[in-house]
Design a protein that fits this description.
6-stranded mixed β-sheet, alpha+beta, binds protoporphyrin IX containing FE, single chain, 49% helix, 393 residues
């Protein structure tokens, strides 16, 4: 296996990680990424296969678990009960409860209010030029996930702050300050939810939080800690990636001169899939080997970690011809932006609906939208999203 060198905080890499992915993929399915001290899967076939291979998983193997530093306790407590960090049978139980709320019926039911939301955000666009990321791309997913869970929409500024502080723990630019902020925000988020759940217990509604409360009262299904961790996961995962799919998508569309015909009912699905393939918001997830496994020419030992580079898999020329070209007319081939296998994104249908409706409304109202400044990505690998998106009409 070849060793590759690339700092994940190098400004050039942060702005455009794809040349590095191409070089790494040319070395084989797996490379050793020296800066992470980890093996990385870079081809589409390796990333897809390892996502689905049940001999690998996200939960830390038992013999490797440590209590973690005391100053991180509130953040670790949420992680410990998160479905994203669990494997069966815990994962199966938690995921089944959450999936009940993500039926296609529940998502279609959101569509009328979603329509009103996008129009009212567009009506309120400030004087030009303005930042589309904060005024539109951020607001759409955070308000939608608040509505789905049944959390007051006026909580969204706090939710955004807590969420950003918590997910910064996964970023290569993490510092001691990141840890302090993540612990404080985890505590504040947990305290808010404990209070809010108590209020809602006496005022049940037709929403996800009420259904999860019922499952918690039923003791067997959900503990109090799991209830809080599940709400936090849904609220955080429910907007972080969608914000940047919208931002990266609008940037790509404007830079490539893609016309409004690609947002029509018969073309939009391909456009959305190409947006997700071409410049996804999340680039890397890791797995532990749970046994000794031979895969793609490497012998993994139990406990070995492997990084799955979703952004690299999506640009694999073995699957997509001329993968560095944005082409909204491509036939849809499943990309890896939502992961795969057991942890496949619960919110994928919701996210697709949001991107489809938000972009078609935006380009319908403003077909002449254009960039007013060169957008820049933030230094937050493995997240891949813009700092702002200045546009004018
Ligand atoms: C374009 C937007 C989104 C992208 C690109 C995305 C991507 C992903 C990926 C790659 C994973 C799997 C991680 C892994 O395998 O290690 C995942 C899991 C998850 N996502 Fe999303 N996501 C998006 C939107 C959403 C939304 C709107 C929700 C709504 C609540 C959501 C909820 C979740 C949850 C709960 C999991 C954990 C599933 C499990 O562990 O079984 N995501 N997402």
């Amino acid at each position: 296996m070849k060793t590759v060198f690339q700092s994940p905080v190098d400004p050039e890499f942060v702005q455009n990680p794809y040349p590095f992915y191409d070089q790494a993929r040319a070395c084989g399915d797996l490379v050793y990424w020296e800066d992470y001290g980890k093996i990385a899967a870079v081809s589409h076939r390796a990333v897809s296969a390892l996502l689905k291979d049940r001999r690998f998983g996200r939960e830390v193997p038992e013999e490797m678990r440590t209590p973690g530093p005391a100053h991180l306790a509130p953040w670790l407590a949420v992680e410990a009960h998160s479905l994203l960090e669990a494997e069966p049978p815990r994962h199966t139980r938690l995921r089944a409860l959450v999936m009940r709320a993500f039926t296609s019926r529940a998502i279609s039911a959101l569509e009328p209010s979603f329509h009103d939301l996008t129009h009212s955000l567009i009506d309120a666009f400030p004087d030009q030029p303005f930042d589309l990321l904060s005024t539109f791309c951020t607001q759409v997913p955070v308000i939608t996930i608040c509505r789905l869970l049944g959390v007051p929409e006026d909580m969204s500024p706090s939710l955004l702050r807590w969420s950003h502080d918590m997910v910064a723990m996964y970023q290569a630019s993490r510092t001691p300050e990141t840890e302090t902020a993540a612990a404080a925000s985890s505590q504040a988020f947990t305290d808010f939810l404990i209070d809010y759940i108590e209020q809602r217990r006496s005022d049940p509604q037709d929403d996800l939080i009420t259904r999860l409360i019922v499952a918690e009262e039923d003791g067997e299904k959900l503990s109090r800690e799991e209830l809080v961790a599940t709400c936090i996961l849904l609220l955080n995962a429910g907007h972080e990636a969608t914000v940047h799919s919208l931002g990266n998508g609008v940037k790509t569309v404007l830079q490539n001169g893609i016309g409004p015909q690609y947002f029509a009912p018969d073309t939009i699905d391909r456009t959305v899939e190409e947006i997700l393939r071409y410049d996804p918001p999340l680039h890397m997830f890791t797995r532990y080997a749970y046994e000794d496994i031979d895969a793609f020419g490497h012998s993994f030992k139990r406990g070995d970690e492997v990084a799955l580079l979703l952004g690299a898999a999506n640009r694999d020329p073995a699957i997509w011809s001329d993968p560095g070209r944005f082409d909204p007319t491509r036939a849809i081939v499943t990309n890896t932006s939502f992961g795969g296998g057991l942890h496949f994104c619960v919110g994928a249908p919701l996210a697709r609906m949001e991107i489809r409706l938000a972009l078609s409304t935006l380009f319908d109202r403003y077909p002449n939208l254009r960039l007013s400044a060169e957008p820049e990505y933030s230094n937050t690998y493995h997240f891949h999203g813009l700092t702002k998106l200045m546009v004018q009409i």
